[in-house]
Amino acid sequence: MEHIRTTKVEQVKALDRFSTSNKSLTGTLYLTATHLLFIDSHQKETWILHHHIASVEKLALTTSGCPLVIQCKNFRIVHFIVPRERDCHDIYNSLLQLSKQAKYEDLYAFSYNPKQNDAERLQGWQLIDLAEEYERMGVPNSHWQLSDANREYKICETYPRELYVPQVASKPIIVGSSKFRSKGRFPVLSYYHQDKEAAICRCSQPLSGFSARCLEDEHLLQAISKANPVNRYMYVMDTRPKLNAMANRAAGKGYENEDNYSNIRFQFVGIENIHVMRSSLQKLLEVNGTKGLSVNDFYSGMESSGWLRHVKAVMDAAIFLAKAIMVENASVLVHCSDGWDRTSQVCSLGSLLLDSYYRTIKGFMVLIEKDWISFGHKFSERCGHLDGDPKEISPVFIQFLECVWHLTEQFPQAFEFNEAFLLQIHEHIHSCQFGNFLGNCQKEREELKLKEKTYSLWPFLLDDRKKYLNPLYSSKAQRFTVLEPSTVSFSFKFWRNMYHQFDRTLHPRQSVFNIIMNMNEQNKQLEKEIKDLESKIKQRKNKQTDGVPTKELLHSIHPESPSLKTSLCFKEQTLLPVNDALRTIEGSNSADNRYSDYAEAFSKSEPAVVSLEYGVARMTC
Amino acid sequence: PQYSELMRTGRAQAELLLGPEAPRLRGTLCVTGHHLLLSPGPQDLWLLLLRNVDSIEKRVAGESGTITLRCKDLRVLQLDIEGVEATLDIARSIEALSSLESVITSFPFFYRPKGLRLGDAWHFHPPESYYKRVARETKAWRLSEVNENFSLCPSYPRAVIVPRAVDDKALALSARFRQGGRFPVLSYHHARSGTVLLRSSQPLTGPQKRRCAEDEELLRAVLAGARPGAQGFVVDTRSAQAAKQARMAGGGTEAKAAYPGWKRLHRPLERGRPLQESFVRLVEACGDLEQSTDHWLSRLEGCSWLAHVKEALSTACLTAQGMEREGACILVHGAEGTDSTLLVTSLAQLILDPLSRTMVGFQELVEREWIQAGHPFQLRCAHSAFSHARPKHEAPTFLLFLDCVWQLGRQFPLSLEFGEALLLALFEHAYASPFGTFLCNSEKERCLCEVRSQTHSLWSRLNQPKEQRKLRNPLYVLNPLALWPSVEPQSLQLWQGLFLRWTRPPEPPEVAWEKVWQIV
């Protein structure tokens, strides 16, 4: 609280991000310990969590006040104009402090209190149990065992305590191999395909330099390939571009020499590193933030950002992985440099293609817990939770979510969850409201005592399950229905609802999703009614045989069935898409829709050139 | 009889490839007067209207040949044929038969489907009924039969609606002052604001800046008949410079001094050859399955198709907004007034008028604002995106319209009573059809060819109950409000259902729609 000097500023204007005519809403800005709140004259509230703020910028003073631009990690961008410069300065300084915390303990999760008792909190943390997940996959079994080598985090600090390795891999082999791998991240099981008896394993790059080799590491790889009774050879996928991998050799790292490992097939897949991804997204956001963007600038900007190319590279790698298992029945070992960014992307996306369980709400949570959280994807560094090295920030996880979104677009019936679920998860990797994504590895999380001091996100998402259901989901699919996505160039599209989540004017004005959801709900309700009525009729019939006259039966059904009545009302209500109609009205409202600026164009049509709204255009008279 | 001269060979053994991953069909191939037939078995018949063939490419090697047919509906077919001679003969026959220009020997004049009676549906959407309604509602407008024998304007229908205060003689003089005789007529009456939408062609002011008192009187009468104090706007679909240049060729635009109360706005829309080229380049890019995402994005940018969509939609929005918000009367024209003009007036109606978003209303709109209004379909749709022939009059203006409607449907998925399937059907039939609806360039030509009495109407097919289910939007709810779409580039999408129709994702959206139907 010591950072907050001004808690309330009145007469603040919020500018529309895409308006060229500087249209604004006036309201009051409040600063709380956790949020920045803007309430406009229509009493509409905009809450911005301090942890979501990526940057705050104070622009040069204008006649109407001091402009403050806030960019958020969830891609919200707000542009305030504060009447007095001193207020603006105070808020600016406060936000700078509040948005960059130095200690984990100062993050929101440690003060967030959803009014649950300790037992409930603990139960929440137990919702996702990875031991149960490995059991579901069918391990341990005669080929794979649970190793206790890392129980005390002695071999690898960034791995979880419980690791699955081939039955024949002894502790000396594991220790030897871990010494030959970056950060000690030796090859372990990520996913086991029960039908094919093939495995996805993950690790970091070997410390091979130009010629070094390690017998234990070679043994371990051989053990992995032997744990697959069907296919003798295994793939080693280096997810980096070949050039990057070769450059690493000079630093004593590198990649596996095929001559030293028996029965491996080595493959580069060419996903760029975190720095390339960071600047690619940066470019994309710059282009899309342009006022009055033309169609051609939009597409050339998309192209030069390279973002979709990177998304495709991740998708291609996952497809390669899934094919190796499905078509060739081969096990695959995946690594990059440290094995916590690209490796997490490829392993998790590959598993998602192979196993329909991960396409359910619960399964997707398990997948994130397993391949991202437990295997040490550095969420805190990649998301910039604390004030730290900006070069460690990178949208690696967002890219994974975007790949999943692309799959949901290509397979509208294959996922139990919808886009809102992905967006909500994205919201919370940055919010620091829950403990799941704090810290960079399990060891760190245990030291922070997150399970005692914070809450887990997953039970809260499950409570809101209805919001995240895909009404088109068809669960009839077998467990091992493999998705084979198309990777032709036109399958990759700009994810508007992620990068323009808060720019409502760019969205469709009516949502198919809402209405189908409502109808689905209503159908279920009606079906239940029918069942209830049927059972009532049955009861009556039984009674009737006991001597109740038919007339009474007919009379009594209607008055006695208030539930039917309510359900009919419900039906009428939902059939008229109330929300959507409202939204349309909203869309036709001059305050909300940028078309209204046409009015200006009309009234000012005398001058030679009038610039119109939403960049469309210039009009000459 | 003349077909037999063009047919080089009766039949051959062939294998047909319908797409990159489609199964092969094997059977006897046969070219008839209007069709290419392949019968893989005694019961099965695969059939292609020859008129649908846009380009043909033949290759022979050894004892067999390959013909690649690129169709106007953007399908690409490959035929592997036994025998070199047979291949060449079939190719020549297809080439000759698919490029026949005579209307009255075209297939619609021979097509007699079961269950439809000739002449039945030609009264489905008579534009007169709309005009009569407007004339009844407003009192300031009347139905004129001045063009009864197409003498004033060959591209207008027999009946048009004009201000009551202007007599037929004045209309005749105004027609002489407008290119192609297209004097200002009513296109849409917006009852709520008491304003009207008009369309015409450019005035023939020429370099001397000629004027025409009757034309000026006509536009004055429009304002006088609208809500008191109404302003007028002329939305010229050319740039100010292009409009000025048109004067040199005898055309021009309304001078401010001559038309008090009217102001001009220039919103240049792409037309003619550049639009056709944009279409060709987009389709070319969509056919390349191997390209990188970067290359794809740069081709998407390079073809500018979505930029044209954006321009068309925003001009229509501007027009609609002028009527609804400003209470202004609007006259839309470009040069001839048969292309971008119709694009703008029809889209503006879709934005403003809930009736035009119904199944029947939309068909009426297409009939009234495109077919009857004299969009030269025969010239514009002579070739599609694959033809090697140098484009003369081809332009995908109608397709651009359908694309804009599709974008509206994406942004307002509950507000259109029809689905994508109707738009796709209209696209296909505009380019090649067994029905007479899109034949010829104007009502006058259709009368000369006796299209109404000798061919079937597409509307009668589309309104059959079994077709209707396919064409309807299951989620439709009447939305009485105007639809204001976003035209930001992030909000516009490539119409995959059309441009990538034949290279579909593994789980086609139709499956999902089936589920939607179940839920509804």
TrEMBL record, chain B:
**Any GO BP:** negative regulation of autophagy
What InterPro entries does the record tag this protein with? Myotubularin, Myotubularin-like_Pase_dom, PH-like_dom_sf, Prot-tyrosine_phosphatase-like
Q: Which PROSITE patterns match?
A: PPASE_MYOTUBULARIN
**Where does the chain cross the membrane?**
none
- Gene Ontology cellular component annotations, sorted alphabetically: cytoplasm
UniProt-recorded Gene Ontology molecular function terms: protein phosphatase binding
Domain called Myotubularin phosphatase: residue spans? 121-499
Q: Coiled-coil ranges per the record?
A: none
PANTHER family per the UniProt record, alphabetical: MYOTUBULARIN PHOSPHATASE DOMAIN-CONTAINING PROTEIN, MYOTUBULARIN-RELATED
UniProt record similarity statement:
Belongs to the protein-tyrosine phosphatase family. Non-receptor class myotubularin subfamily.
- List the protein's name: Myotubularin phosphatase domain-containing protein
| Lineage summary | Eukaryota, Metazoa, Chordata, Craniata, Vertebrata
